[in-house]
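Batch job 17 of 40 flagged for manual review because the log was empty.
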Amino acid sequence: MVLVSVDMEGKAWNWINVPEGCFHYVGTIGLSQGCLHYATTITPVRGDSTLGLENHDSKEWVLKDSLSIHKLFIDNPLSIDHPESDYHTVGIHPDCDTLFLVPKRGASLASYDMRHQIFCNILDLEKGCLSRHLPYVPLFSESLADADGQ
């Protein structure tokens, strides 16, 4: 499986292979801090891998984080609703190393801060909530960091 990127004018096309070994699992793609990220579904058996593509030209994915639901549950016993469930990554924060997660069983939205290794529930979703989630991330022609002069 490959990711295809196209420039804003639609003239320059590029492709990048999905990280090796990850194409068997549903993943989420997101841009955070100028780096393309790929996060896999977190399962109690396999855990999760979050990879970053720091250099588009090299097309090499670098492991940014790896986590286990069981480890998270031991560290945060009151935060994790369903330690036996798979967690799907439904979004990646554009400005910090944070994943947004939804358990396969249950109806809650959670976040995981990769830098500080903090997991927390954000809110309970409606009962009967659809299992598919579509995150909205505004598209800007320039990075928000550039707008602040950083």
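Reviewer: the log was empty due to a logging misconfiguration, but the result itself is present. Residues 2-131 form one domain. Unflagging and moving on to job 18.
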